[in-house]
Structure formats: C-alpha cells, structure tokens
Specification:
175 residues; single chain; 5 helices; globular; 42% strand; alpha+beta; 7-stranded antiparallel beta sheet
Amino acid sequence: MRRIALTLAPFLLLAACGQEPAKQDPNAAAAAAAANAAQPQPGLYRVTMKVNDISFPGMTGPMAQQAKTMFGDTGHVSEFCLTPDEAKRGREEFFKRTAEGDCKYETFSATGGSVAAVMVCQTGQGMTARSEMKGTFSTTRSDLSLKTQSQMPGAPGGGMTMDAQIASERIGDCP
C-alpha cells in the first residue's frame, strides 16, 4: 500500500509552465513544467505517509483499524537518496522515484509551488491505481493529499480506496 500511495506523489510536484495542461498531453505538460520548475535538491529524503482512511468491499471495522494501525499514528516513514542526476530531471522524476509501476498522467497542473494531478499506474500484477493529488512543494519538501482507487483482478468488489497525506523532506546528504 505504501508503494501505491507513494507512486502517486511523484507526479505532482512540478512548477508552472506557460501551457494549459488541459489542451495538451498531460505527460507532455508535466515534462514542460519540469523544465521550468525549481529543481529538487539532491540528497537524502524522508517520506512520511499517513493513511486517514482505507476501505474495500467487505472490509470490517477491525480490518480497517488494523490497516490504519499498520501505518501507525505518526505514519509510515521511509527514506531514499535523490541523486544529482535524478534531481536534474525535476519534480516529475522526484515523484516517480517513489512510485511503482508504469505511470501516466491524466491531468497535470502546477503553479507557484502548488500542484494538482491525476495519475494512473499499472503495477504489473494486473493492478491499476488511479490517484488524485493536491499539495505544495519547494526545492526541499512536499506536502500532498492523496486519494487513490485501486482495481485488482479477483479482489472482492474489485479493489480498494485510500485517503492519505504524504510529506517528503530533505534531511541531509546521501550516505
């Protein structure tokens, strides 16, 4: 689940570009925005994901509580190193770095440190995750709200929904 949620975060943190994303391919809009965006600083990043709500058909109250408990009250924390090469490729790469699967934008808009996007990822085992993201970013941090719907073949009711907050922050140089 962490990888699903983090898959969506990377797509949103690009700065403004002079083109209207709705009038062009959203993936091209994201690439154009990346070229004009303040680049993320290379370094060691800590990513904290807190699940506010998670559900799937047939999920009981105790199952929901167990899923939330898995992430803890303070959220699930992971770290990754963003290399100088990856940082040069901009926010799009920054967020895709934490994603899993083959991901494409449906919509993308970023202006002045705010971002809103919809990304769809195919993860391999037949799962499709569609995430809506909104939030803010700078060269060293991002804060996103994420709403994800995942479809899995053979899963009861087809999949799950998740509402989460994802924050990333540069905490130093890579080891």
